[in-house]
Automatic annotation (TrEMBL):
Keyword field: ATP-binding, DNA-binding, Nucleotide-binding, Transcription, Transcription regulation
Species of provenance: Pelosinus propionicus DSM 13327
Pfam families the record matches: AAA_lid_14 (PF25601), HTH_8 (PF02954), Sigma54_activat (PF00158)
Residues passing through the membrane, by range: none
GO MF annotation list: ATP binding; sequence-specific DNA binding
GO biological process, one term: regulation of DNA-templated transcription
Domain Sigma-54 factor interaction: 341-566
Domain of life from the UniProt record: Bacteria
Record protein name field: Transcriptional regulator containing PAS, AAA-type ATPase, and DNA-binding Fis domains
Residues making up the signal peptide according to the UniProt record: none
Length: 634
């Protein structure tokens, strides 16, 4: 605010009349008048500068470090105009939002040396009316003439203060005190301060925005680089720095080596094309360095000025990170934990404790147990309890697909570049690959898998490019895989690899006391899933469940419990509500009666292997009857 020059004699008269007689002249500026009233009410002496409140040295150092950006910027502005301040006997102060002096520039302020003043508080409650207190109150620039100061000792100089606002908040106050009042026009002082204010607010706002952008860029799962012609990286986010360090592209702590010297195929990458003005979007790129070769998905955008490329921005995502993101996005993660498994028998407790131990090592694992015993759930639980829990869990059932399809599913396909896609070995990178019914894997596929697991490298079908991977295999087998291997029905080297650790899952009949607990757990899960009340099992129903042999094991129990839960009225499941086809004289009637066959299929939960166990026939036989009754296996 540029105020007209006022008569110092008149201002002094207004001041003395108020101090001595408490009479406020109507010509006193409203903000000054308000501040005088507050100063008098607070009992602040009007004669000499009182002892100032000061920050402890450690707190002052902490605040100065916090405000170093503003102090450094004002240092630069002051150094450019230092001579001007000296010639006209000007003082310059930087105060924080609490009116503590962070820095005292130029000549002494109110006869205080810089060491005496820095860390002191100059708020209205400390020194009464000043340009600082008025700006702090009203958040607007203000020029205060000497006689308007509350303390007479300070009335020899005029003072002008401006607020420094960022995002609508007061962050600093900058003050200039002028002693040579006749030599320097007030308008020059005000103009200087307004210029400082504008420059500082723009600078601090830009710094805040840059800091926010740095935080954003450091938190995204992409490596981001700003590169100038020739291959020098002038900026990289946190992940980008990590990637550069991984290929020895960091020359010193703060200097990045020239990519043209580090990337051996630099001229064949989108970066080189980018400097020719050719952008690339989501392109799969192979980077070859002395240390390693890796692939990523890269986007390169040229930045132009006057139609000339001045630099490029590159954003990349390593292929393995992309696969992990995709795997999690589509739900390739563990759905169960070891604590979610139910049982109290010694057989169950022993199995659960061993599962916890093997989960913690990184060995490949073989799960053996009859169909329906919960091997898939156990695989999920072991993955969840392992050091790979953050990685994907990919499942592949070896007995459900043709051999040539199984090979493509495992290793991926690269016969045609447009259709090149990763297999399960690549998708499971960093996590676990669960191979169910591994005993049904063809010999040639098993041999190729064994080689891949030994070298930790895989080639997609039709390609010669080797890609590294890091996975843990959890294999599941319904029969004795060792015996099958000894008979020559399973590839021996693969058996040696996947059986480094082994866990046997007991059949349900070997843990009968757990059956009621399991049934109640299944019913509780069903009630939660379908937002229904939990139904209670009567003791007679529990005894029936415990008396049954359960050839389909837990999966069969799941089907029986589901049927009872949904078909029982009320909240109690009685003996009459339980349907056990194995106990109702099913014999071979299902072979001629479609309804009986469908009912048995429902009890088996729609699982062919489980139904085969229940009916004591082969899967091939079941497929024949599916066709006979006009049913689809899905």
């Amino acid at each position: 605010m540029i105020r007209e020059r006022r008569s110092k004699e008149k201002l002094m008269n207004y001041y003395e009349r108020f101090v001595d007689e408490s009479v406020m002249d109507p010509n006193v500026h409203p903000w000054v008048a308000e501040s005088w009233e507050q100063s008098k009410q607070r009992g602040i002496t009007s004669q000499t500068m009182p002892t100032l409140i000061k920050l402890p040295k450690d707190e002052l150092a902490r605040r100065q470090n916090l405000h170093h950006a503003a102090m450094e910027y004002l240092n630069g502005l002051y150094n450019e105009t230092r001579e001007h301040f000296n010639v006209y006997n000007l003082s310059l102060l930087l105060l924080d939002q609490d009116c503590y002096v962070m820095k005292n520039y130029a000549l002494p302020f109110f006869q205080k040396s810089p060491g005496q003043l820095e860390g002191a508080r100059l708020a209205g409650e400390d020194i009464g009316t000043s340009s600082i207190s008025i700006v702090h109150e009203h958040k607007a620039p203000f020029l205060l003439f000497g006689p308007e100061m509350w303390i007479k000792e300070c009335q020899d100089g005029d003072a002008c203060s401006v607020p420094i606002m960022v995002d609508g908040q007061l962050v600093y106050i900058v003050t200039i005190v002028s002693v040579e009042q006749e030599e320097l026009p007030h308008s020059a002082v005000v103009s200087l301060l307004l210029s400082i204010r504008y420059a500082m607010e723009q600078h601090l706002t830009m710094l805040a925005q840059l800091e926010a952008r740095h935080v954003i860029l450091d938190s995204v799962p992409f490596a981001v680089y700003h590169i100038i012609p020739g291959g020098d990286v002038v900026y990289s986010n946190k992940l980008g720095k990590s990637r550069l360090a991984g290929i020895d592209a960091v020359a010193t702590k703060d200097v990045v080596a020239n990519l043209n010297d580090v990337v051996l195929n630099y001229r064949h990458t989108p970066l080189y094309k980018g400097f020719k003005g050719i952008p690339s979007y989501n392109k799969e790129v192979t980077w070859i360095t002395q240390r390693k070769t890796y692939e990523d998905i890269t986007t390169v955008v040229p930045l132009e000025q006057d139609k000339a490329v001045t630099s490029v921005v590159a954003v990349s995502l390593p292929i393995e990170d992309l696969r992990t993101l995709v795997a999690h996005a589509v739900g390739y993660k563990a759905r169960y934990s070891l604590t979610s498994m139910v049982g109290e028998t010694s057989a169950f407790i022993t199995m659960q404790e061993k599962a916890g131990r093997v989960a913690r090592n990184n060995n490949h694992l073989l799960l053996q147990g009859e169909s329906g015993t919960g091997k898939q759930r156990m695989a999920h639980a072991i993955h969840q309890a392992s050091g790979r829990a953050a990685g994907p869990l990919i499942s592949l059932k070896c007995g459900d697909i043709l051999p040539e399809v199984l090979e493509e599913e495992l290793f991926g396909s690269g016969e045609y570049r447009d259709e090149s896609r990763p297999g399960k070995l690549e998708l499971a990178n960093g996590g676990t690959l669960f191979l169910d019914e591994i005993e049904k894997m063809p010999m040639h596929v098993a041999a190729r898998l064994a080689d891949a697991l030994k070298t930790c490298k895989v080639c997609r079908l039709g390609e010669k490019v080797e890609r590294g991977f890091d996975i843990r295999i959890i294999a599941a087998c319904d029969s004795d895989l060792k015996r099958l291997t000894e008979k020559g029905a399973f590839f021996s080297p693969l058996y040696e690899i996947v059986s480094k650790s082994m866990l046997r899952i007991p059949p349900l009949r070997a843990r009968r006391e757990d059956i009621p607990l399991l049934a109640e757990h299944i019913i509780s899960e069903l009630a939660e899933q379908h937002n229904m009340l939990v139904k209670e099992l009567q003791n007679e129903a529990k005894e029936l469940l415990m008396s049954y042999e359960w050839p389909g094991n837990i999966k069969q129990l799941q089907g029986v419990a589901e049927q009872a839960f949904f078909n029982t009225e009320g909240n109690t499941i009685a003996l009459k509500d339980i349907s056990l086809l194995g106990e109702t004289g099913i014999s071979t009637a299902w072979k001629e009666d479609k309804d009986i066959f469908v009912e048995a299929w429902k009890v088996a939960g729609g699982n062919i292997s489980r139904l085969a166990n229940m009916l004591d026939v082969s899967r091939v036989t079941l497929y024949r009857y599916l066709k006979k009754f006009g049913l689809d296996k899905e």
